[in-house]
Amino acid sequence: MRTLAIDIGGTHVKILAEGEKTPIKIDSGSFMTPEIMTASVLKAAERWKYDRIAIGYPGPVANDTPVLDPHNLGTGWVDFSYETSFGKPVRMLNDAAMQALGSYHGGRLLFLGLGTGLGSAMVIEGIVQPLEVAHLPYKKGRTYEDYVGLRGLQRLGKKKWQRTTYEVIELLHAALRTDSVVLGGGQAKLLKKLPRHIQLGSNDNAFRGGFKLWKDSDSSRLR
Hints:
With 223 residues, this protein is α/β, with parallel strands linked by helices.
């Protein structure tokens, strides 16, 4: 059984099927609805063979279903029938949690996705737990996402954004008592000279997490 992993982001939807070497990127943004996403993925992956689908979704998920529409995409995600549209079995997990699962190698791990927004998840003893840190208040009436997401980078400039992001990472690392932190997302590469307990994650980790979501015998505990 081969899995097609879909990582939905505010800038791109990235897909990869098991056995394939090169992911495909699909432009995303405020226009992206679930109808457009599924149609775009089916067309992009039409030459690939796969039997099931794993979706990393940029928002809270319960029982393989979105709880809220994403902040950076279009609407209609909550009541959409993904299995009907894809014609395949679908498992869905918060996108940061899927990347965390693919990044995990033991202990207490915190994953932070520094992209259009701020994704967050923890893995403790192999059990992944999505977090909702992004929209918690941080400073001056703004949220964590307002400081370390794309809007923060644009507002603060690169150097101040870097200092602020380091502060936020260390704050969350200390508060959550994690052994290590893995950073993903498009802005993570802007951070240099990371401490030993902070690592840059691979772009492939989301896909690894999607494949593992189906293969793990305890996957029902990962939602």
